[in-house]
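Chain X:
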Amino acid sequence: MKKPSELARHRDGARSAVEDTLRLGGRALDEQRPAEAERIAREVLAKNSKQPEASHLLGLALLAQGRAREAILPLEEAARQRSTASVEAHLGRALKEVGRTEEALARFQRAAACQPPFVPAFRELGILLCTLRRFDAAEAAFKRGLEVEPTSVELSLDLGGFYIVRADGKNAKVAYARALVNAPRDVRALHGLGVALLYEGDIARAVERFRQVLAIQPGHGGAQLDLAQSLLQLGRSDEAIVALRAMVRAAPQNYGKALKALAGSGRGRLFLRRSAAVRYLNPEA
């Protein structure tokens, strides 16, 4: 019979082996190998069905494979065994993906109240509250997340997008500028700042931001269109045509948007037939 000290060493060794195995599963998930993560989690659970970290890993692996409905059960088990902000947020995400909105909201709210904080919980909560048109609560959730992690680029982008939807250019500008402090070349923040400047009526500075986006990501369709429309508003039609031609060369399916921009500026009246406008936008074709 083993002595107490030997039993303790055996338990510690077994626990360490499980932790090592779960770390391998977490690495597989990080490296976008969710099927392997699922296999590892199931192997651990076959030996101990009440292992909360393994249940959490299984739920995440299933979520990553688009199997949200299957992910709910292991995530619920993980929450029963050890409720953390991360587990609650991931369970909320699974519930949201299968349409159980009120249950998802309750889980996100619980996750946001947990300590230590889990920043993605505030993002998930804010986004869901936006879809429910509970705008004041959504804004508060994004801001609480930024209090927890002031340098979060994603939360700053979320808050900026929230203000854009609310047609609040002033606050959107502040949120996107905050994102750019921490990620100066983030095209989402640069583009968002350009749109916010348009809301403010500062078209010339918006043009600068759209050009920055295109210098980093030349095929950014949204920035190409916004740049062209801004240049048309400034009366710089030759530059606008260059931007529209670049847009349709990169993505011919954008002809419709380019033609609409031209028509809105008055240039569209030059064309009696769509084919003529198409040739004008893409003279090399």
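Chain Y:
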Amino acid sequence: MGVSKPSAFTKWIKSNLLLLFTFIGVILGAVLGLGLRPVNLSEKSILLLSYPGELFMRLLQLMILPLIIASLITGAASLNAKLNGKMALRTIVYFLSTSLISSLVGLVLVLAIHPGNSETKELLGAGSTKQRNLDLVDNFLDLGRNLIPSNVFQASMETAITKYTVEMSGNSTIITGKTMDYRSGTNTLGIIFFCLTFGTVLGSLGPSGKPLINLFSIIDQVIMKMVYMVMWVSPIGIASVIAAKILGVSDLALVMSQLGLFMVTVCSGIFFYQFVCLQLIYFLIVRKNPYKFWWGLFQSWMTAFATASTAAALPISFRCMQENNKVDPRISKFVLPIGATINMDGTAMFVTTASIFIAQMNDIQLDVGAYATVVLTSTAASIAAASVPSAALVLMLLVLTAIDAPYQDVSLLWAIDWFVDRCRTTNNMLGDCYGAAVVEKLSRSELEMMDKMANEVEQESKNPKYEDKDNEDVEEQSVTTDL
């Protein structure tokens, strides 16, 4: 009797085993968190439950910096300077366009559903957010300072930020001075700029730069193998993170009843953007099945949801893009790190929706000009988010100030941000990945030209150099005659 062949289902299970385990981890974390809520665990017990998730997050964060450095240098070195410039322009235009589309989707939904009203404000009470002195111009100036760091080693540990000196005058705060300071945290934008420049120049050196390119390529391969090992513990880490976050919410039912409609509005916008807007953009430009592409990113999608960090999911995004979706690694290594830093589609949508929600709660009537201000400021603030700590809720202060809405009410959204933040992070991550696929399609002719030139050079190097050999023979004969 012959050995029976494995069924198609068995083959699918075998090839998607890690994805299946990760999905089980997400479900297990949600069930565990909801199931343990009636037990009223102590803070120490919740801390112990969250500990595996904390270690998992630290493992992912450990990989980010070496992975960005190695992948960007090898990616930039494998392309010429002209193509790097074209790719950078296409990437930035794509990011700006999609962030603006995301903001517009949020605007349409928050106006159509109208989740905010004065009754909601009465239930939630007054906000308690202390005023933070933020300025959009200062944020863009900080963005420039972080883009070009004065010390690349300092950039791996600290980020430039504008600090304000203030004085209280009655109930208002007066800015008396500004200083440029640093806060703890990797300046990813500065590292990206340095690595792109370093890789581009290294690639232009030709054969003399090849050994160093090979070194960074080997480092890149080693980090990716380490990432693959970390991915096998991701189900445990993801389950731990999600369960701990659910248990950390003080009154889940009350939060859902008071802000449930707002959460529905935000999540509707996020998933409409993911499953309609991004898919349509991908189909119109790339001309392939967009949902198959999304399925190839599901592992990274779940990691982004669990960790609430595009950067933490970056190592897994690289692997999914290369192995599942077959995107040219030269493109993904270029686009994804930049996107993880400045492309915040989900953040732009959330800031737009939440700002108008707060205006609705306070019965503030906004005109067309105010709506345009919200959309444009949200888009600009999401790009400048790299230099602003505390993410979307902090950026809202800029928008609320622009439309003269009460900034104190930002604190009312902290209770649900643990969940909404995870949803909008998946938007950010998918926007980066779809952007890489679009840039690859738009750069296809240049990539094929480079591959053709590389093949020609390789063929020439393999052919015997008859002219050099003949010259050497002539020189040898001349030396013999002289002797």
